[in-house]
Write a structure and sequence with these properties.
The protein is mainly β and about 650 residues long. It folds into five domains: about 60 residues; about 190 residues, Immunoglobulin-like, CATH 2.60.40; about 90 residues, Immunoglobulin-like, CATH 2.60.40; about 100 residues, Immunoglobulin-like (Sandwich); about 110 residues, Immunoglobulin-like. Helices cover about 10% and strands about 40% of the residues. The strands form 13 sheets. Strands 37, 38, 40, 41 and 42 form a five-stranded antiparallel β-sheet that branches. A four-stranded antiparallel β-sheet has the order 1-2-6-5, with no helix packed on it. One of its GO terms (molecular function) is carbohydrate binding.
């Protein structure tokens, strides 16, 4: 039988109150009746009173929850004992029971709880009421200190108050190690805090240990990138960071993010004093007590996390969406283009090749009409691909590239219409599509961009004009026409603009002709150049960084706006729109103008990055000159919180305790 306990309690409570109310109500009722035997109005007044009393009693019985309000419970659970005892020695138990003073819960055990030395077979960790049971499944090592770092995974069951930085330790030997080292892990390219990265120590100082053996002591970074490795024995160590994809506590996959510290780590400690303040009330100090405590060093270690420039190269796909063009898509960038060998056509001088910046996307525009009219093109593609040993190896694929079915149907339909003269309507002139990107208003430093649907065969620059409005007349001004260094179909038109003036950009028909015979139609666009009063400027005087270097100006979303090299310790940004800016400096060790990652085998760190530690508010006509010492502030304090994508975990919300 199912019992509704809430309803049963209300039922019992109601009749208990009715039973005890009978005597008082009956006595009061009789008295009133005797006094008002002949007064019917008084009797009618009594009946509602009794009804109200009964209703209030019933409602009070139904409200069995605790009343709202009361002080907020902000006290975390209290550790009261364990089996074995905390910091015990010569322990052989693999089952550990932790006791607390109230009901507790565990959150994100796999992410937050870390055991040292690391366990290949993950232990079982289960909460139950006021206790936590830990079953260690790996064999316990002799003469070893074990630490179970719960971070803030433990909290009370009702209010969620976390028991932060709780670590349980024991030793299988006759001593227990208590040393600790601390620091921060930042993403090397943008100084973002790295959350959830393993940080480990090796007493074996050989370089190969990081790639072959699991860590001896380990920790995991929190949302601020902070870590503390505990339970360390005196000695000398190497420090590493690892995003451990395969959970073997070693750098065995090239895709894993890593970090390594150049200097040897020697844990130590020193006695320090701190002041504890006792308050009489919120404004009056009662007593200041000095207390001695042990502080472990080093505590400001910095690791810069990076992923090696590793990739798995292969041909993702090939396609022929239109008859006169086919495309190859590769998984990664390449130093060279693939070699094409025609099987049912002659590949010599057959294409115009359009490649991406990294050679990972390549379009082949077929010039010969006899070739692109074939329904299927057969070709051999030779390139370097990554084999099972992660080495680049020559490979040749044979491809059959057929015209898409829709293209074939369109071709057949057009042929049928041509055969039937009565059904063939007059065809409109088809022009080569040209996308003219002419900003309006035009920035004083900007230019016009022309993008064509097909590669060009010829350009008539004399059929292209820029006119400047002087008073009421339009005057031709000099222009410069250039093709993009990478894009086959992209061109630029440059001109020395006069601020606040009006211009026209105009092209005649037949100004541009594509390799398949189409030409552009005439076009005209008008625009105005912005005033110099619209802009501001920021000038950095850079010190504390190795040269060569460059500075990237960033918006408040950490997006790059401009990039300039540091010349004579100066980085100048002109013609800036009003807004909020920050800046990032990159030590460009190889001088290639981009940030480069590191390589562990070569013991090469990623190129160092620094952030200007303030957000800069720029207004029109302002010129801000900033002195920037890249070493003045520790790297983990440089990047502004509003720029960070990895935000610190929010404090758990405190609920009002219901009593």
């Amino acid at each position: 039988m199912i019992i509704n306990w809430k309803g049963w309690k209300i039922y019992k409570c109601f009749f208990w109150y009715i039973h005890h109310l009978k005597t008082v109500s009956y006595s009061y009722f009789c008295t009133m009746m005797n006094k008002n035997r002949h007064n019917t109005g008084s009797l009618s007044a009594i009946i509602p009173l009794v009804t109200v009393i009964v209703t209030i009693v019933a409602y009070s019985c139904a409200s069995i929850g605790r009343p709202e309000g009361g002080p907020v419970d902000e006290t975390p659970p209290l550790f009261t004992g364990s089996t074995p005892a905390a910091n015990s020695i010569e322990n052989t138990r693999k089952k550990i029971i932790l006791e607390f003073n109230e009901f507790i819960k565990l959150e994100n055990v796999n992410e937050k709880v870390v055991i040292s030395p690391p366990q290949i077979q993950q232990p079982e960790i289960k909460p139950n009421g006021k206790r936590i049971t830990v079953n260690i499944l790996d064999t316990l090592k002799k003469n070893t200190t074990y630490t179970i770092d719960f971070a803030d995974a433990i909290s009370d069951n009702n209010e969620g108050n976390p028991l932060g930085h709780f670590t349980f330790a024991f030793s299988t030997g006759n001593t227990i190690d208590t040393m600790a080292v601390s620091g921060t892990v930042l993403n090397a390219s943008d100084l973002e805090p790295v959350k959830g990265m393993l940080v480990g120590l090796h007493a074996n100082l050989a370089d190969s240990v990081f790639t072959s053996l699991p860590f001896e002591r380990v920790s995991r970074t929190d949302s601020r990138g902070r870590f503390t490795v505990k339970g360390i024995a005196p000695g000398t160590y190497r420090l590493y960071g690892l995003k451990d994809a395969d959970q073997n506590y070693a750098f065995t996959q090239k895709s894993e993010a890593i970090a390594f510290h150049d200097s040897l780590i020697v844990p130590r400690f020193e006695e320090r004093m701190r002041q504890d303040t006792m308050w009489k009330d919120s404004l009056t100090i009662d007593t200041i007590i000095e207390r001695k405590y042990t502080h472990f060093l080093p505590d400001q270690l910095l690791l810069r996390s990076f992923t090696e420039d590793y990739y798995s190269q292969y041909l993702i796909k090939s396609e022929r969406l239109i008859p006169h063009k086919f495309s190859l898509y590769f998984a990664e960038k390449a130093d060279t283009l693939p070699l094409i060998k025609g099987i049912n056509f002659d590949e010599k001088d057959a294409f115009m090749v359009e490649k991406s910046l990294n050679n990972d996307t390549i379009h082949y525009w077929i010039k010969d009409s006899l070739t692109y009219r074939r329904d299927t093109l057969m070709l051999a593609v030779s390139y370097l691909y990554t084999d099972t040993l992660d080495k680049l190896t020559p490979r040749t694929d044979t491809l059959k590239l057929a015209i898409r079915k829709t293209e074939r149907n369109n071709t057949s339909l057009s042929r049928k219409k041509k055969d039937n003269k009565e059904e063939t309507p007059p065809l409109p002139t088809v022009f080569l599509n040209m996308n003219a990107q002419v900003p309006s208003p035009m920035d004083v430093y900007n230019y016009i961009t022309l993008l064509f649907d097909e590669p060009l065969d010829s350009c008539n620059v004399s059929a292209m004009r820029i006119r400047h409005k002087v008073d009421t007349l339009w005057e031709n001004v000099p222009l410069k026409f250039e093709r993009d260094s990478i894009g086959l179909r992209k061109y630029y038109v440059y001109c020395d603009w006069v601020p606040k003036e009006e211009y026209e950009f105009e092209t005649d028909s037949l100004a541009f002709t594509a390799i398949y015979g189409l030409h552009t139609n005439k076009m005209k666009k008008s625009f105005k150049v912005r005033s110099l009063d619209d802009y501001g400027a920021i000038y950095f005087n850079v010190t504390g960084a190795n040269m060569p270097a460059f500075v990237e100006l960033l918006d408040k979303r950490d997006k790059v706006i401009q990039k300039v090299p540091v010349i004579d310790n100066k980085a100048d940004f002109n013609y800036l729109n009003p807004g909020t800016y920050c800046a990032r400096l990159i030590e460009d060790a190889n001088g290639n103008g981009v940030w480069d990652t590191g390589n562990y085998a070569e013991k090469r760190h990623p190129e160092k990055v620094y952030y200007y530690p303030q957000m800069l508010e720029l207004k029109s006509l302002w010129e801000l000159e900033q002195d920037w010492n890249a070493q003045a502030i520790p790297p983990d304090k440089q990047k502004q919180d509003e720029l960070k994508k990895q935000k610190p975990d929010e404090d758990k919300k405190k609920k009002t305790k219901i009593q």
